[in-house]
């Protein structure tokens, strides 16, 4: 074993089947399962090609390339591409490589790979172990054994620095009740480690600022810029089970005094008038780096209320929908955050992008939504698609969509894997050669009835 080759047991993953189970398609998934699913392709010696697919542990097929590997490991409904991962609202962008956790991903132009573990947790500059799919005919680069071309899944710090770190927002840690109970008790007279503005230090020396309930690791210069305030030492792994997303309604301020409102992992710059209208809430001073990585459009299923009109809007697929009081009640009156109208103006579209499964809470009918089109699924169609995770949305939102997706959308028929292109409002089946030549193109799998509703070319 070399210094870049660890056993699966040392890395906390399974070297052999069975893969840890529990997730549903597009649903919440534990980090151990993400790594186990990636290892599944290693164990089965899947080789790289963009013109074929391979099954996951349950038989669902994914494209055999880098983005297909990550899509499979995250148990998504279809193989995304590096391009669509970049714009996908199902991920969050991390503020620093230092924030990476097992099962997160590293993204750059035309490549994505899965983060496993730091070589030295106390010295991230020593590099990290990854799952990576790179070369035609090669098996998956991984931390446990060389590929059929002799490579190990390992990146140096300089290699890591060419990537943007991202996280699947439904990735979670395995619960550890005993540890959580101990943390809840805390030390007498000490604030809990998730208190906003707290500064805590883990045994490896990393200092974290708590913002909106989320730990944010500071660079030494950033800590100094805050005035090198007192920190509290905490046990190892104390921060592992803290939330992934900042609490909606968190207010942060950068060094120049600019305030931002955070909701749905998105930022909105508050004017002095906005801040006054919100009641002058308190804020946490943060490095500008934390704000820079946030989007301007909230993630899916965020609820924003216009502070002036009190209309509640649901955000889905970078689109917004105004809820009636009856619709809001039908969704269970979910928690919302009051925002200035300008925050809502940043969400310009009324038509969602991407692929979703939406459920009308009144009828319980599940609709498959792809590229601005909708199709009501029968129970059999929903089961055949793997019973993917759903988002509750009112029928009024669904009815703003039509039956035909946007131009030049590619769709994969669930029953036989045949690929179709949508053009001029019609569907056309690709030849085998055309499908093989697509390479890394997003081709979401849809119910047969979805395609049947689109006129044939």
What would you note in describing this structure?
With about 450 residues, the protein is α+β, with helices and mostly antiparallel strands. A 6-stranded antiparallel β-sheet has the order 4-9-5-6-7-8. The chain has a 4-stranded mixed β-sheet with strand order 13-12-11-14, with no helix packed on it. The N terminus is likely disordered. The protein starts with 7 loop residues before the first helix and ends in a 5-residue tail after the last helix. It has 3 domains: about 160 residues, no CATH class; about 80 residues, no CATH class; about 100 residues, TTHA1013/TTHA0281-like. The longest helix is centred in the first third of the chain and has 13 residues. It is built from 15 helices and 30 strands. Strand 28 and strand 29 form a beta hairpin.
Strand percentage: 15-25%
Q: Total strand count, please?
A: 30
Structural class: alpha+beta
Instruction: Give the tally of structural domains.
Output: 3
How helix-rich are the residues, as a percent range?
10-25%
Shape category: globular
Radius of gyration: 23 Å
End-to-end distance, in Å? 57 Å
Main-sheet strand order equals 4-9-5-6-7-8
**Count of individual helical segments:** 15
Please tell me the overall pLDDT: 89
| Largest beta-sheet details | 6 strands, antiparallel
Report low-confidence residues grouped into runs of 5 or more.
1-16, 178-190
Keywords:
about 450 residues, alpha+beta, TTHA1013/TTHA0281-like, 15 helices, 30 strands, about 20% helix, globular
Précis, in short:
The chain is an alpha+beta fold and 457 residues long.
């Amino acid at each position: 074993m070399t210094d870049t080759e660890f056993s699966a047991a040392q890395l906390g993953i399974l070297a052999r089947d069975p893969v840890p189970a529990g997730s549903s398609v597009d649903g919440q998934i534990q980090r151990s399962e993400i790594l186990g699913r990636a290892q599944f392709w290693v164990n089965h010696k899947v080789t790289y090609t963009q013109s074929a697919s391979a099954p996951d542990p349950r038989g669902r097929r994914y494209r055999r390339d880098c983005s297909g590997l990550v899509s499979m490991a995250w148990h998504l409904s279809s193989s995304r591409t590096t391009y669509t991962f970049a714009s996908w609202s199902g991920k969050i962008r991390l503020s620093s490589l230092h924030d990476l956790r097992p099962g997160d991903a590293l993204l750059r132009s035309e490549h994505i790979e899965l983060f496993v573990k730091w070589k030295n947790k106390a010295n991230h500059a020593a590099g990290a172990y990854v799952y990576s799919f790179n070369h035609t005919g090669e098996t998956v680069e991984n931390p446990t054994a060389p590929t059929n071309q002799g490579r190990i899944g390992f990146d140096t710090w300089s290699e890591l620095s060419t990537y943007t770190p991202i996280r699947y927002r439904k990735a979670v840690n395995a619960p550890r009740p005993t540890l959580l109970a101990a943390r809840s008790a805390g030390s007498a007279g000490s604030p809990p480690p998730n208190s906003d503005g707290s500064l805590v230090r883990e045994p490896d020396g990393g200092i974290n600022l708590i913002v909106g309930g989320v730990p944010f690791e500071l660079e030494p210069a950033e800590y100094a810029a805050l005035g090198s305030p007192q920190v509290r030492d905490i046990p190892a792994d104390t921060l592992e089970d803290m939330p992934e997303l900042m609490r909606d309604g968190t207010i942060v301020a950068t060094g120049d005094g600019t305030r931002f409102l955070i909701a749905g992992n998105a930022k909105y710059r508050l004017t002095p008038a906005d801040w006054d209208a919100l009641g002058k809430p308190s804020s946490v001073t943060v490095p500008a780096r934390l704000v820079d990585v946030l989007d301007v459009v909230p993630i899916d299923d965020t609820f924003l209320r216009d502070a002036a009109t009190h209309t509640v809007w649901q955000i889905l697929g970078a689109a917004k929908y105004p809820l009636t009081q009856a619709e809001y009640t039908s969704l269970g009156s979910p928690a919302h955050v009051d925002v200035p109208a300008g925050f809502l103006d940043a969400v310009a579209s009324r038509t969602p992008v991407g692929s979703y499964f939406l459920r009308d809470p009144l009828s319980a009918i599940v609709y498959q939504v792809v590229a601005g089109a909708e199709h009501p699924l029968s129970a059999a169609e929903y089961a055949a698609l793997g019973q993917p995770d759903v988002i509750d949305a009112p029928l009024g939102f669904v009815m703003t969509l039509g039956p035909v997706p946007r131009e030049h959308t590619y769709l994969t028929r669930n029953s036989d894997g045949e690929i179709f292109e949508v053009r001029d409002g019609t569907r056309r089946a690709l030849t085998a050669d055309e499908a093989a030549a697509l390479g890394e193109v997003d081709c979401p799998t849809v119910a047969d009835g979805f395609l049947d509703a689109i006129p044939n070319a």
